[in-house]
Amino acid sequence: MSKKKLIFLGLPGASKGTLCNEIAKHININTISAGDCLREEAKKDTIRSQQIKETIGQGKLVSDELIIDILNDKINDKTQDYIFDGFPRNIAQATKLDEVLKSNNDKIDAVIYLNVSEDKLLERILGRRVCPNCNSNYHISFLPPQKEGICDKCGNDLITRKDDNEIILKDRINTFNNETKLLLDYYQDILYEIDGALELDEKFEIFKNIYDNLGE
Questions:
Q1: Does the residue 123 lie in any domain?
Q2: What would the pLDDT profile of 59-116 be if each residue is shown by its tens digit?
Q3: Which of 42, 67, 197, 207 is most exposed, with the fewest beta carbons within 10 Å of its own?
Q4: Separation CA 51–CA 73 (nearest Å)
Q5: Does the predicted model carry a pTM greater than 0.85?
Q6: Active-site annotation, residues
Q7: Considering the domain boundaries, does residue 204 fall inside one?
Q8: In 3-state terms, what secondary structure has residue 31?
Q9: What are residue 18's DSSP bridge partners?
């Protein structure tokens, strides 16, 4: 049986990570978060890690070449189903991803677009919390931990990411509209849209229906 490869697209704060976590509870799909991979790389004591930390701290995006290099091993993993969350973010990355997959007799099976209005994003972003130890995602209103400020999975203190602020958010929205949104046309033949304003369980059921009906 062929392994399915999917991409999640959506504005920052569209709850892509939250939905991915819900999917992981019920379906054996590995989520590859570009942001998480970059943060793991940034923890290393190298010149590249320092560059990543400075770039992320300024709310900017790392180069296409660097993100492709970091994700290369995961892109070529044919042993399991997986979802790319936060990658590709532009046409250049999508083209390179297609080239890498094609060279390995592989392809993207579906692209899921979580569509949410921009006026909903600020509330979501400012309420987000993350576990720096296991990368679990929470929200103080929509998905609170059982104990305030503490990760349910590993008991570590939750944090607010440095780039989760209004100024950086507006810059990221502009980047999405100018670059990433073009991918909706690029992937139009395999594109599926989910209303990002729906409840988590509703979004999961829609996703599961899409996933179950993908061709082998």
A1: no
A2: 777 888 888 888 877 777 777 888 998 889 899 999 989 988 888 888 999 999 999 9
A3: 197
A4: 21
A5: no
A6: 16, 89, 128, 161, 172
A7: yes
A8: strand
A9: none
